[in-house]
Amino acid sequence: MNTVIVSGGEIHLDLLKNVYETKKPQIIIAVDKGLEALHTLHIMPNHIVGDFDSIDKTILEYYQKNPRIIQHKYNPKKDYTDTDIALKLAISLLSSHITIIGALGNRMDHSLANIHILVSALESHIPCEIIDTHNRIYLVNASHTIKKEEAYGKYVSLIPLTSSVQGLTLTGFQYPLNNATLTFGKSLGVSNELVDNIASIHLTNGILIVIESKD
């Protein structure tokens, strides 16, 4: 069951439309201001989540009147961000794959936090990615393959989320590694490139942030 979360960061409507048409999500969760982008494209969410402090009130009221949409309203003074709450909701709904749009933007604090909360999906063994027009971001804690024809862009960066990532072996990359250790605070894994049709990542301990990027 594919789930798309539309958060309140930077959203390009062409990207959102493409994700909606290609992923064909069974569940759409709108997070606060992300509801405005869905409204522009006439896409109906299944759930709306947030404290609703930044959304156009007329648009919010339009969706609140729809009895088919489940509302999850929270006090602005809470321990978790709206996107974190939406991700936990997607996990509880037994999603098989989660795509998050609008998780990046001008607020670097929110962007970093949204990358960190992907851990909850990783621990639940649910593939989860953050995408914008230039990046696909996800976490890896074991083995993963990337097909060159399906890569999001030319570059693949591997950044430790944990203090270290051990036993890292890369094949099919321009800069391969064999049983290496990446440590937090170093830039060794940035801007690698695929050279084979299929590249593989394998590690024995730790969590990697994988960022597939295009200029």
Helix content: 10-25%
Number of helices: 6
Strand order of the largest sheet: 4-3-2-1-5-6-7-14-9-12
Beta-strand portion reads 25-35%
Largest sheet geometry: 10 strands, mixed
Radius of gyration: 18 Å
Commentary on this structure:
Helix content is 24%, strand content 33%. It has 215 residues and is of the alpha/beta class. The strands form two sheets. The protein has a ten-stranded mixed beta sheet, sandwiched between helices. Strands 8-13-10-11 form a four-stranded antiparallel beta sheet, with no helix packed on it. Strand 10 and strand 11 (177-183) form a beta hairpin. The relative contact order is 0.15. The model has no long low-confidence stretch (mean pLDDT 93).
Describe what is shown at a glance:
It is built from 6 helices and 14 strands.
What characteristics describe this protein?
215 residues; alpha/beta; 10-stranded mixed β-sheet; 4-stranded antiparallel β-sheet; 14 strands; 24% helix; 33% strand; elongated
What order do the helices and strands come in, and which of them pair?
Elements: E1 2-6, H1 13-23, E2 27-31, H2 34-40, E3 47-50, H3 57-64, E4 70-73, H4 82-92, E5 97-101, H5 108-116, H6 118-123, E6 128-131, E7 135-140, E8 143-147, E9 155-160, E10 164-171, E11 177-183, E12 192-193, E13 198-202, E14 208-213
Parallel strand pairs: 1-2, 1-5, 2-3, 3-4, 5-6
Antiparallel strand pairs: 6-7, 7-14, 8-13, 9-12, 9-14, 10-11, 10-13
